[in-house]
């Protein structure tokens, strides 16, 4: 992204915060794993959305007093000894070029700088990202006793509303993540055979991602054969594939912090049994119907209810239930979620979202029949457009005929 993207995002945040306020966002730090080893660092997504900087420990501060907006970035103090071990950290000029903030200071100046802002103010709003446990909560505990004249506000909801609608640059990153994911799925499908372990097959996807420069996956890959596919978040991936199994893959590459999220289910043997085909086509019909309904002005909650009703009808046809109310025995999640910098991207409270142009949502109906060892989910990523939608995952094979033809080769 060019720095203008982050400048524009900050301007939109300024428009939404109250006067007489400061907003503080933390890049975060890599949590400790064990001994002297840390987990890989990934930036707080709201910090990244407003700065484009993906190093740990930095802090963004926005101030708004008497209608005047000011921006500050506090970067880590330079430690030349540690840089010999871990590499150089960002310099002021580099930071300015990435995010477009001219006032760049060092972290050692932060506390005194905030003291100066708060001093002599009768009342002050401090906006922090308080959606999940993160560095903001540590800071909140620190300032509760330090300042008496502050009112704490949650910046997450403000930024979430902005992140729901993607720009063309963001959509292009999602497209790239999807392109890599599709290549990875096709690679693992080509190499599927009975007797393999789920993790062996998963490795064919990982190889493509690494080869294409992917640093991190959107989430831990689900590779679930047979009845394992009836467990929504099955990630052990250590069971042997059997000849008549279906295997469900739920996976995604991450490209420059933007994610793909695709689910595909296919037969290990390359051919669906009659029953597997019946269930698969039932799920596929719901997938395609829901996608056809997605357009600006449609409410997510309405299509979520429609999906549940449609799956209930399919379950009745399949002889699984007699009453629609019993559908939760075989379908126990929502139809999808927002997709972006997080796989389960920002959501409004209660998922009370009305689709707008530029939103990206997954569509992932499923039917899970443990007693038959059949778990099927078909997930696509859908962009809401001006007049309807675009299926971003349209190049991923999906029908029974396409899957069997592809695997026969």
TrEMBL record:
<keyword id="KW-0479">Metal-binding</keyword>
<dbReference type="InterPro" id="IPR052433">
    <property type="entry name" value="X-Pro_dipept-like"/>
</dbReference>
<dbReference type="GO" id="GO:0005829">
    <property type="term" value="C:cytosol"/>
</dbReference>
<keyword id="KW-0464">Manganese</keyword>
<dbReference type="Pfam" id="PF00557">
    <property type="entry name" value="Peptidase_M24"/>
</dbReference>
<dbReference type="GO" id="GO:0006508">
    <property type="term" value="P:proteolysis"/>
</dbReference>
<comment type="similarity">
    <text>Belongs to the peptidase M24B family.</text>
</comment>
<feature type="domain" description="Aminopeptidase P N-terminal">
    <location>
        <begin position="1"/>
        <end position="135"/>
    </location>
</feature>
<dbReference type="InterPro" id="IPR036005">
    <property type="entry name" value="Creatinase/aminopeptidase-like"/>
</dbReference>
<dbReference type="Pfam" id="PF05195">
    <property type="entry name" value="AMP_N"/>
</dbReference>
<protein>
    <recommendedName>
        <fullName>Xaa-Pro aminopeptidase</fullName>
        <ecNumber>3.4.11.9</ecNumber>
    </recommendedName>
</protein>
<dbReference type="GO" id="GO:0070006">
    <property type="term" value="F:metalloaminopeptidase activity"/>
</dbReference>
<keyword id="KW-0378">Hydrolase</keyword>
<dbReference type="InterPro" id="IPR007865">
    <property type="entry name" value="Aminopep_P_N"/>
</dbReference>
<dbReference type="GO" id="GO:0030145">
    <property type="term" value="F:manganese ion binding"/>
</dbReference>
<dbReference type="InterPro" id="IPR029149">
    <property type="entry name" value="Creatin/AminoP/Spt16_N"/>
</dbReference>
<keyword id="KW-0031">Aminopeptidase</keyword>
<keyword id="KW-0645">Protease</keyword>
<dbReference type="InterPro" id="IPR000994">
    <property type="entry name" value="Pept_M24"/>
</dbReference>
């Amino acid at each position: 992204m060019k720095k203008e993207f982050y400048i524009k995002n900050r301007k939109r945040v300024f428009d939404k915060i109250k006067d007489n306020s400061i907003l503080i966002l933390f890049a975060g730090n890599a949590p400790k794993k064990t001994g002297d080893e840390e987990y890989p660092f990934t930036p707080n997504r709201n910090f990244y959305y407003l700065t484009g900087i993906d190093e740990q420990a930095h802090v963004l501060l926005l101030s708004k007093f008497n209608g005047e907006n000011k921006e500050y970035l506090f970067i880590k103090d330079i430690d030349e000894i540690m840089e010999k071990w871990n590499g150089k950290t960002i310099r002021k000029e580099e930071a300015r070029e990435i995010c477009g903030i001219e006032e760049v200071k060092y972290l050692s100046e932060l506390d005194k700088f905030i003291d100066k802002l708060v001093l002599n103010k009768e009342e002050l709003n401090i906006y922090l990202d308080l959606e999940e446990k993160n560095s903001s909560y540590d800071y909140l505990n620190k300032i509760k006793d330090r300042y008496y004249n502050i009112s704490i506000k949650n910046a997450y909801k403000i930024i979430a509303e902005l992140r729901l609608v993607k720009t063309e640059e963001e959509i292009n990153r999602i497209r790239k993540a999807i392109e890599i994911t599709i290549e990875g799925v096709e690679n693992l499908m080509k190499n599927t055979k009975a007797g393999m372990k789920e993790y062996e097959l998963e490795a064919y996807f990982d190889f493509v991602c690494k080869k294409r420069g992917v640093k991190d996956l959107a989430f831990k890959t689900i590779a679930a054969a047979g009845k394992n596919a009836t467990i929504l978040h099955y990630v052990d991936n250590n069971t042997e594939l059997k000849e008549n199994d279906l295997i469900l893959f739920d996976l995604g590459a991450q490209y420059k912090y933007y994610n793909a999220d695709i689910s595909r289910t296919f037969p290990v043997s390359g051919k669906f049994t009659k029953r597997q085909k019946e269930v698969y086509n039932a799920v596929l019909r719901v997938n395609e119907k829901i996608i056809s309904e997605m357009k600006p002005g449609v409410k997510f909650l309405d299509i979520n209810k429609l999906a549940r009703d449609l799956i209930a009808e399919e379950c009745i046809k399949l002889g699984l239930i007699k009453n629609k109310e019993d559908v939760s025995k075989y379908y126990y999640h929502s139809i999808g979620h927002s997709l972006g910098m997080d796989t389960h991207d920002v959501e409004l409270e209660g998922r009370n979202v009305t689709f707008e142009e530029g939103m990206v949502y997954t569509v992932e109906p499923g039917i899970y029949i443990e007693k038959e060892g059949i778990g099927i989910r078909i997930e696509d990523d859908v962009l809401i457009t001006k007049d309807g939608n675009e299926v971003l995952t349209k190049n991923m094979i999906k029908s029974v005929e396409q899957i069997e033809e592809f695997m026969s080769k």
